[in-house]
Amino acid sequence: MAGAPPVEARGLVKRYGDVIAVDEVDLTVEAGDVYGYLGPNGAGKTTVLRMLLGLITPTAGQVRLFGRDPLVSGAAALEGVAGFVEAPRFYPYLTGRKNLELLAALDGGEAAKRIDEALDTVELTDRQRHRVGGYSHGMRQRLGVAAALIRDPRLLLLDEPATGLDPAGMRDMRALVARLSLAGTTVLLSSHLLAEVEELCNRVAIVRTGRIVFEGALEDLKRTAGGGWRLRTTDDGRAAEVCRTQRGIAEVRVDPLELRFEATEEAAAALSVALVEAGLAIRALAPHTATLEDLFFRLTEDGADPVSAAGRPAETEAA
Amino acid sequence: MPALRTVYAWELRKLVAQKRTYLGLAAAALVPVIFVVALTLQNGEPEDVAFGRYVRQSGLAIPPVILIFGSYWLFPLITALVSGDIVAAEDHNGTLKTILTRSVGRGRIFAAKVLAAVTYAIVALALMALTAVIGGIIVSGFHPLVTLSGTTVSAGRALLLIGASLLVYLLPLIAIASIALLLSTVTHNSAAAVVGALMISLMLQLVTIIPGLGVLRPYLLPTQFNAWQGFLRTPADWTPVIRAAWVCALYALPCIGVAYLNFLRRDVAGG
Predict the structure, then answer these.
(1) What is the CATH number of the domain that holds A256?
(2) Are the CB atoms for A11 and A315 separated by under 8 Å?
(3) Please, what's the b/e burial string for B96-105 (b: 16 or more CB within 10 A of its CB; e: otherwise)?
């Protein structure tokens, strides 16, 4: 099945009685992607990850990992796939190293030979002989990453990997994901830490109460936010008057330190000429791109309209 | 996919690393020791138990006495302690998702757990037998044994018969392990599975007091705990032994089958 995308989910539904936890989710993660799966708590992110790993059976829909269905092929579908859902869990009465040895035995192949390196990568070498029962949350999280690394995965699924880590741990985790991605590992990362996703991911899916409200490139998502601009001049008061009379400039707002307005790139260029002609020097004129956070709240908070907010419906997103 | 042998070996290593394992093994080893110590500290013998009056004539009478004493609840409890926990503990620790996202199929993990649970029952029983035989020989010597038929067999033959009896006693123990495994798999709760398996066994015993249901007695699980005594007669009475084999299979196989299907299909949502 060479060429099949690492993750392909179509029409995933998971229903618990009357509750629809996941509603018609489509996901495609291409080789090399660092894919951010974003949504508020309770939006069904973890349920989708569990379905991807074959831990729970979808009520409807299909999952393919590198072209293989975990429900049909079982553990064979997880070949080249590693990761964890929710907090990684281990046997508390075994040492960190013994836990990895056990999992390496269940992996077979060369996994056992990668234990030392994996422990080193997550900086648990010093504590490997201690029982996991005494590990802090952050250490367990790191052991979870080590447990994934010994599988030498081509696809890494991480559910809120930074949870419970201190700032240094979060920085290390981000660096590790970036490094793995550079080395060719495809990563699917669920998170509600928007800065993390913005820094690491090239593609995102945003879910809201079980439904995907946006799926596509992070760049495309940002483009839907429209063109905000920030302007600082030698005289902002007069500049505001110029802005208001200039064509193509809208929503002019005077903030204490700067002016804000909406415009296309051409209109903003024309404005700069007009400002200079009016005898004003421009200190700064820069597009103000919406942060992922702005977009996230717009898409996931009550009253948001999935289709118009995203600029286009998620369903039309090309696979 | 890693071999069943590998997965089984790790199931055993997990048992070795848990305190609960030693609780049962310690009980299995201590009961004969306590019995032997009590025997040396006082006169008289437990006459109300079969073989009880021979415990001073031959040390080999002690294992059957312990087996009779522990048959209905002690060894079932020791067995259920592990088999009732072996799946539910994974739920409790949240480790089911950890081991089910590696390269081993669910069926093989389950098979390894069944084998480990049965292995534990065998080890506990063997440990009891070993301490009982050694302790018995120390206090009462390696002498010929009077069987349930009143005949006397040589010490060597008696030892052989005790070994065969233990194998027969293992059959209902495996049935109890299967019930505990089923409960462990479907309830996700270790305590419920351990207690549940014992209660089912004891309730089955009560069924026979309902008038008219006495005919069921030979086919109930608790009755099979005495089937081994067929070997301690001359000539050996194979009827209860053969019945124990198929009756226990009738209890064990459906339980294992249902537990297997449940384990194969269940949603692993916890942890």
Answers:
(1) 3.30.70.100
(2) no
(3) bbbbbbbbbb
Which residue from A56, A79, A88 is facing B98, i.e. has the nearest CB?
A: A88
Give the position of tokens 């010994």: A150
The B-side interface with A (CB below 8 A) comprises: 1-2, 6-7, 9-10, 13-14, 17-19, 93-95, 97-106, 265, 267-269, 271
Q: Is residue A300 part of a domain?
A: no
Q: How far apart are CA A231 and CA A253, in angstroms?
A: 10
| A223/chain B closest Cα distance in angstroms | 37
pLDDT digits (tens, 9 = 90+) for B193-204: 999 999 998 888
Q: Which residues contact B162 (CB under 8 A, 6 or more apart)?
A: B60, B63, B64, B129, B133
- Check pLDDT > 80 for residue A298: no
Tens digit of each residue's pLDDT (9 = 90 or more) over A213-262: 888 888 777 766 666 888 899 888 888 888 888 888 888 888 888 888 88
Q: Where in the sequence is the domain holding A262, given as residue range(s)?
A: 226-288
* pLDDT tens-place string over residues B11-62: 999 999 999 999 999 999 999 999 999 988 988 777 778 888 888 889 999 9
Number of domains in chain B: 1
Task: Find the angle CA(B79)-CA(B251)-CA(B262) to the nearest 5 degrees.
Answer: 80
User: Is A55–B97 a contact, with Cβ atoms under 8 angstroms apart?
Assistant: yes
